[in-house]
Inverse folding.
């Protein structure tokens, strides 16, 4: 059997008979000749043949002579071909996959994802996402982190209480984990530095362009920090690794050596002297624009979010306990990452829960971790689909999710 | 601030004052001197001090003079130290973490996982697991695979029907995915070669040493194969990558260039001329032992499993449709991997469902994939926790799971 050659490698084989395989991207029957463009994971290969072309999206194997042709994709084409059908397309695709731009609407794309994502421009988004995750891991592996895999089924809906999916767990009530927060903190006690790439679940009752019921969270948690600024430095390192991993495939962004940072209280002044405890999406866009203008940066840290809007495990700002040692990272107008320093002393956890009027019993196994000696630590979570959406500047997070799950969508 | 030095690096800093940080692994108060052994992610550092030692598992930062001492771990110790407590241990650990062997029972370890796993011998298992996953990814990245992230919430419990967890999904009934099978096949149509590392969920009603309600599945699916033997070659490549990634940390196993293989029908003869349609755990142990004896291999492929025991999407064996183009990989007596060639033609899927008396409507979005042209393809799924358990030769899969979930266990 002649070994398979990828479309992108064709020009290196001029004068040889080779085998390519892929999908019929386009067939064009002219008077005396038929052009069949075959698409594989590397690109397109033109086959010069005669007679009728197979239906688009039919899977074929083609052996032929590689012949130079400056007008063909990659400068070479296959002539004198023998075409074998491996898998017939019995239904036409929902829109023309061969056109350079995608003509379909988002609902059409999502309803027909397995076929629609074959379009090279749509497929590329997920190659960029995969490269980003590889860059994230490489960056964190490089600073001594250990990758972990934690339970997605948990006994109590403790972290935020709302927006959790309930499960029937062998006749008991359980929940889908909204984040690996408690587990990754516990594992700082074992490995010091950990990360996890995995699904998290939010029963988001809102139908927006930036929320999903399941998304991929790139979580990290780091021990022996001085404060949240060490976490921000690790995050900057991770983001730089992600950008480096997609370099050459996506224009920009530049990751400043030191990402500009503004305290929440300062941000309130910029926003017209307000005194809110959170930022609205419009505020995030305003601040992002400000950072671009004032600092030439597409990234902006907003630090010191009010404790009132942060979870109980958040470390308060020393000397100013209305605020916290936490941050969000804004990227091109959107909150991309949330993170910060956590409490690490058992007594501080008990006090924090008491202050919020919550019972420590509900958090027993979590609190146990801190009774056994924990270092100062903190971490962050990057939403992968948000990252890719902002990186590629597409409007809806569903455009960077293979099979989105939301209030209305549970298939395909 | 003096930059932190890891315990394992101490000997490279003799004569310098450095800062180490970690957990009080052990304190020993002698008449005139106190030894405090500090544990960090790299190893142990001995601190020579006086007076009472902090409670074990207290987190400390120690600055001191690095002094050569052949009796200390790594050949160096810290003298003239200043010890600062960063996080107090207010409860003693459930068993002595400083003893070389683990004295606790498995239930004690699991109940107190966040503390118990700090024991270096227990922690090491998960470092081995993390390295294995990195090796898996590296091997598959090297042959042009794309990493994907697929939904864990699905609309129907189609793949096997049984053992699924139900979810309340915005008032609708949904299920936790038992595998990414349908999604990874669909994505062969987009990327040709894909893998996913993620959680899968099985509502296993049995309490065994080798089943969990959630485990980490290393899934791959490869397009443009000739048959299942190409999938076996990719699996061998992945396993070799995993072994390479843990080399030097775990003895063996050797991965033969060609892993020995036995057809299911032949295996039945070896097992005494039986005519069953599946292998029992004892059969797997017998065959594994046979492969070790006859082929000097700790790995054995069993191919051709009867169609009756394989899912409807399995490709039958050409010319012998009682059997299938599928395989299991046995490793040290246990089924570690299941895989095979899948059907790829739309008509074949319709026929397979009809033969099993199942309605195509239940599989609509899955079947759509094959109506749009799919190449011959196949794949496999490796259970990470099983892999690590067999690699380290521990008896129970819970010993290689950070926080196991099973019939009885939902915390910590």
């Amino acid at each position: 059997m002649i070994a398979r050659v990828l479309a992108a490698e064709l020009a290196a084989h001029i004068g040889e008979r080779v085998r390519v395989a892929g999908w019929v991207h386009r067939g064009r029957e002219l008077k005396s000749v038929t052009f069949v463009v075959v698409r594989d994971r590397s690109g397109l290969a033109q086959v010069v043949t005669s007679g009728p072309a197979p239906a688009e999206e039919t899977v074929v194997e083609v052996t032929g002579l590689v012949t130079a042709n400056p007008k063909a994709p990659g400068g070479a084409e296959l002539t004198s071909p023998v075409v074998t059908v491996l898998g017939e397309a019995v239904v036409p695709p929902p829109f023309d996959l061969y056109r350079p731009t995608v003509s379909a609407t988002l609902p059409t794309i999502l309803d027909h994802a397995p076929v629609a994502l074959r379009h090279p421009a749509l497929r590329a988004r997920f190659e960029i996402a995969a490269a980003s995750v590889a860059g994230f891991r490489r960056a964190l592996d490089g600073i001594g982190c250990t990758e972990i895999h934690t339970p997605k089924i948990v006994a109590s809906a403790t972290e935020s209480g709302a927006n959790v999916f309930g499960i029937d767990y062998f006749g008991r009530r359980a929940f889908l984990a909204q984040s690996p927060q408690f587990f990754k903190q516990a594992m700082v006690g074992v490995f010091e530095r950990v990360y996890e790439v995995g699904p998290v679940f939010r029963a988001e009752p809102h139908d927006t362009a930036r929320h999903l019921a399941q998304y991929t969270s790139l979580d990290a948690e780091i021990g022996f920090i001085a404060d949240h600024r060490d976490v921000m430095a690790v995050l900057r390192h991770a983001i730089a690794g992600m950008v480096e991993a997609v370099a050459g495939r996506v224009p920009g962004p530049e990751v400043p050596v030191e990402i500009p940072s503004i305290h929440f209280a300062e941000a309130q002044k910029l926003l017209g002297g307000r005194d809110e405890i959170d930022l609205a999406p419009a505020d995030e866009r305003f601040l992002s624009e400000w950072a671009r203008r004032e600092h030439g940066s597409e990234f902006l840290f907003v630090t010191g979010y009010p404790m009132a809007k942060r979870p109980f495990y958040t470390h308060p700002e020393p000397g100013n306990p209305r605020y916290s040692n936490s941050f969000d990272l804004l990227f091109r107008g959107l909150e991309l990452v949330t993170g910060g320093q956590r409490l690490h002393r058992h007594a501080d956890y008990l006090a924090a829960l008491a202050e919020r009027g919550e019972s420590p019993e509900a958090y027993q196994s979590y609190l146990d971790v801190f009774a056994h000696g924990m270092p100062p630590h903190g971490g962050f979570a990057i939403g992968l689909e948000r990252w890719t959406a902002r990186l590629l500047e597409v409007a809806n997070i569903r455009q960077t999710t293979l099979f989105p799950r939301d209030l209305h969508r549970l298939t395909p």
Notes: The longest helix of chain B spans residues 120-141. Residues 7-87 of chain B form a domain with the OB fold (Dihydrolipoamide Acetyltransferase, E2P) fold (CATH 2.40.50.140).
